Amino acid sequence: MNFLLAIYNSQIAWTVILTLYALLITRLTEYPYIWMRNRGVEKNVAVYYDRKIVHMLAGGVVLFAVPFVFRSGTFPFPYAFPLIIGLSLTVATLIPHLTGELLEWVQVEKNKNEVHFCFMWGVTVFALWIVLGNPWAAIIPPIFMAFGDGITGVVRNALFRKRTKSLIGNVFMLAVTAPAGYFLAGAVGIPLWGLISAVVASYIEQYEFGPIDDNVLITVSSSIVLYIGHVVGPIL
């Protein structure tokens, strides 16, 4: 009993630590924003860079920590802790929109994509971990969203100096997501399905349908592919 209690307490501690880490990264991105603005970078360009920094250094780094600190078999419901992180960050990013006191270096009025990012981050890991039974496979779609869409945004911002969609961004995204999908999906024996999910996610990233932004489309589409792979089994 004491052993199980110790495990439970450690996972609560990691939940708090990783949540605070993501919030700290978000806060610290005010400094590169100030640095860019002082050098004449347009506000929307600086904000967009910051958003992608948060994508990768907050969302992405925490994702890679998940399989190490929340382990299957060490506690009955380890997949609940990433969900708590995602929902906590969802609330934290939504509050400034509701109060009108936006974090101007990383948030944009009438654009709640970062809220959707946090929500889909937590829900996707939670659902896929239950379905696939493996944390490494469960983080695949959010990895696509964090690093794939992250590098896509950086490339487009550097080329076009504004938030836009362009095929060159999708090419860079695929370069990141393809190896990630292949190797991480190998954890459950379906590496080629992981590769297919990367192709689908990298293609669908260029679309948005009203409030359904690319964060939702990337995670949902790649999750569906991985679920099909789980049901059908290895291609080769």
Gist of the model:
This protein is mainly α.
Our measurement of the CA-to-CA distance between the termini, rounded to an integer number of angstroms, reads: 44 Å
Sketch the major β-sheet: none
Q: How much strand content do the residues show? A: under 5%
Structural class: mainly alpha
Gyration radius from CA atoms, angstroms: 18 Å
Count the domains.
Answer: 1
Q: Helix content range of the residues, please?
A: over 70%
General shape: globular
Secondary structure tally, helices: 10
Task: Based on the model shown, name its key terms.
single chain; 236 residues; mainly alpha
Describe this structure in words.
The chain has one domain (2-232). With 236 residues, the protein is an all-alpha fold. The radius of gyration is 18 Å and the shape is globular. The model has no long low-confidence stretch (mean pLDDT 91). The longest helix is centred in the N-terminal third of the chain and has 27 residues, at 2-28. It is built from 10 helices and no strands. 76% of the residues lie in helices and 0% in strands. The termini are far apart.
